[in-house]
Amino acid sequence: MKHILFREHEVENIRELDVYVNNAGYAGLKKALGMTPDEVINTVKASGLRGRGGAGFPTGVKWSFIPKNEPVKYVAVNADESEPGTFKDRQIMENNPHQLIEGALICAYAIQAKAVYIYLRGEFWDLATQLDQCIEEARKAGYLGQNILGSTYSCEVYTHLGAGAYICGEESALLNSLEGKLGQPRVRPPFPAQKGGGLYGEPTVVNNVETLANVPFILYEGPEAFRAFGTEKSPGTKVFCVSGNVVKPGNYELPLGITFRELIYDHAGGIPDGRGIKGILPSGASGPIVPATDEVLDTPLTYEDMDKIGTVLGSASVIVLDDSIDIAWAASKMAKFFKHESCGKCTPCREGTYWIDKVLDRIITGDGAPSDVDLILNVAKNMQGVTLCALGDFAANPIIATIKHFPDEFKRYVDPALKQEKKAVAAPKRAGGAAQGRAGRGTEKTGLVPAGD
Ligand SMILES: Cc1cc2nc3c(=O)[nH]c(=O)nc-3n(C[C@H](O)[C@H](O)[C@H](O)COP(=O)(O)O)c2cc1C
Ligand code: SF4
């Protein structure tokens, strides 16, 4: 398959400016500068491109929200890449950096922004240095800075390193962090696209790296060429980050609409030792887990189809859990992650993540009561839809979905009869501490321990 994003598979050294330019690089920007900003927005709208950062919001529509009469506008590129199991933006920036810069500049021209800020998670310091070099090369060649390619349009591009907090991937926390403030989400409205809601209070488009890296192709090849991939409602390709219990974990850029079965077995090499799959997390820790039934395995990976099976595509960080994985243990690892990453600004999330972690720990160390499972379910349900940002819902998902689909995995820890049975079987192995033993197994076998844990 031809890659839109991972062009290093077809063109060696595409990361270098001259190679990129010789392979249609910056041709999309050139074309955009010959169009009106509205024409550029309409072209992106026609492509049906949806945001790849998580929510899948239509990109052209987002750009059209920026008021035309405001003199100062910005583009913020979300390169925070903080969702557990997501490692796609890194590959794009490492191997095809100019395509991101070009896409961001096209967006900037479409909304008539004065500057682009690429916000990278703190751990991406090496990438920031590489991007800075690319930005300088592009400036020297006339692709950014004053009077881009001889036009009347001027725009600067800067990189900015965060400090490695998950919450700074949330768009309003990202803007706060860029401004040098505490990285906590803002109360909305006003939204980033509105006056008062964006960077330094000016209207701002926040887009993910992968989203923007698609834009040069859309401009240069046309929206129909983009729509040749994927489905009507989810056009284009998507980078699926596959991890967990698969033979070949990695990034796979494939058309939206391939099934879980195709992704896991045809591309990621299946499950080690021929084991079965117990559950799949289609969008890292933040989206609901789904059991690996035939129906699920044959579901196309699109924004609309994930909804039908009760989950979300998110950033498409597909974590596969084989039939040896203890789901209650996995839920507790995710609970710890969200407890650690909650910014603490609103009560249901700050308190809820703390109590879920505490009670779940009690459950998986064998000290829980049967009512504890209902207790954490209740806490999680009370976090849904009432928090300032979506992290509150994300933190509730691992609890609600794992208990819904795998109730027995929790029951065996709290049911007095089953607990005795489990203790008797597990006793010899647990001398070093039961919870530690499970964590060790998970760390080695699944790589499931998220950042920050
Ligand atoms: C807690 C939280 C963390 C997020 N982390 C990221 C992230 O690391 N990268 C990202 O692109 N979007 C992240 N998002 C989504 C952003 O808020 C925003 O929707 C996205 O950058 C918009 O870009 P898009 O329209 O191109 O997808 C996060 C959202 C939340 C609630
Ligand atoms: S939901 Fe959690 S992470 Fe989001 S603002 Fe509230 S406390 Fe902070």
Structure at a glance:
The protein has 453 residues and is an alpha/beta fold.
What does this molecule look like?
By secondary structure, this protein is an alpha/beta fold. It has three domains: 7-227, Rossmann fold; 237-322, Roll (Ubiquitin-like (UB roll)), CATH 3.10.20.600; 327-446, NADH-ubiquinone oxidoreductase 51kDa subunit, iron-sulphur binding domain (de novo design (two linked rop proteins), Up-down Bundle), CATH 1.20.1440.230. The chain contains 21 helices and nine strands. The chain has helices spanning 17-22, 27-33, 37-47, 59-64, 88-95, 97-111, 125-140, 171-178, 209-213, 215-221, 223-227, 260-267, 294-297, 303-308, 327-341, 347-364, 370-381, 391-405, 407-414, 416-426, 434-446; strands at 74-79, 115-120, 156-161, 204-208, 237-244, 250-255, 277-285, 290-291, 317-322. The chain has a five-stranded mixed sheet with strand order 6-5-9-7-8. The protein has a four-stranded parallel sheet with strand order 3-2-1-4, sandwiched between helices. The protein is globular and about 80 Å long.
